[in-house]
Amino acid sequence: MSIKIEVTANSIDELADKLLALGTKLNGERVTLGGASFTIPAVEDKPVKPKREAKKVEEAPLVANAAEPPTASDAAEKASDVPSPAVEAAKPLDFDTDVAPVVIKLVTTKGKPAVSAILEQFGAARASEVDPASWPELLALLKAAM
Asked: How is residue 63 annotated by DSSP?
């Protein structure tokens, strides 16, 4: 049996609202279509985990008098805002920008079997299946294989 539902909207927000309303209405309901009757399984509310966290945006401090030139302490404070290499290394990795390009580079230079052998160590057939907590180790092995 095939069911086709078409939902049209003028914006993404409107589409999301319509789909949510439809899903809520059908949640746990008995439905009859074309002589067939079935119950839509109830879905428990689960918190939605975002794929990627939004980057924090820091607001610039207000300056009391913009005509005053910066002092040496201001320059030292700005220099301390620049992350050190250790802090940069601690930032979370992004699959699309950090992992995938290294995988592609190794596939093009050494071939798919070289990448597959490394991925097997993580119990994965594809790099996207590797646990994000293991990405630093995966990257180290991929770079070492180049």
From this structure: P
